[in-house]
What does this fold into?
Amino acid sequence: MTYLFIGMLIGGIIGFTVGGLAIAFKSAEKELARLDKEVKDAHKQNKSKG
It folds into this structure.
């Protein structure tokens, strides 16, 4: 029973770690896309002014 508990604990930690990294990666991709769009918009505004 102790080994079952230890195995479940280790599996849970690994699962949360992998899941958290996957969510962080997805969030980073969305943020990079948003920032890229913002930079492109800023360049368009600068070209139209000058």
User: Anything to note?
Assistant: The chain has a mean pLDDT of 93. The first helix runs from residue 2 to 49.
